Amino acid sequence: MKISQYMTKNPHCIARGVPLHEAHRLMRARHVRHLPVLDEQRLVGIVSERDLYLLETLRSVDPGKEPVCEAMTEHPFTVTPDTPLRAVLEEMRHKKYGSAVVVENNVVVGIFTRTDALRALEGLLA
User: Fold this and answer.
1) Contact, 83 vs 62, CB < 8 A?
2) What pLDDT is stored for residue 26 in this prediction?
3) What is the longest distance spanned by two Cα atoms in the chain?
4) I need a surface site. Which of 30, 31, 43, 56 has the fewest CB within 10 A?
5) Which of 19, 53, 63 is nearest to 33 (CA)?
6) 71: closest CA among 102, 34, 100?
7) Complete domains list, the chain, with CATH
8) Could you tell me where the beta strands, DSSP code E, fall in 13-106?
9) What is the mean pLDDT of the chain?
């Protein structure tokens, strides 16, 4: 079983310079909690809903001005579409990652989150 069978294809991404409040808006509108962060078309990080909330707790942060790159995690966990599901699950569990960004030829083609993992488990149990 490959991760490509279980990932969310063509995930919503965000540019590194977009303000935090726009990231929140996009997450709410698209019902997602993780956004790969791009510089041009190159993956430079990932930002989670939790990352945004943590940064916004600082008094000096203005969500309308502070860019997403200030809240993102650099060097996110990445895999290729051919990576075995089991290997991704083991790494996510072992390192406590909330997601894996699926990249092919330096282009983000998918994302695999804990929600996707639960959906995969549900399908396997059916």
Assistant:
1) no
2) 96
3) 49
4) 31
5) 53
6) 34
7) 3-125 (3.10.580.10)
8) 14-15, 34-39, 42-48, 73-74, 78-79, 99-104
9) 94
Token representation of residue 19: 């303000």
Among residues 119, 120, 92, 109, the alpha carbon closest in space to that of 36 is found at: 109
pLDDT digits (tens, 9 = 90+) for 59-88: 788 888 899 999 999 999 999 999 999 999
Place of tokens 């650099």: 74
Q: Tell me the C-alpha distance between 109 and 118, whole Å.
A: 20
Measured CA to CA, the distance from residue 126 to residue 9 in angstroms comes to: 22
Phi, psi of 14 (to 5 degrees): -140, 145
DSSP 4: G
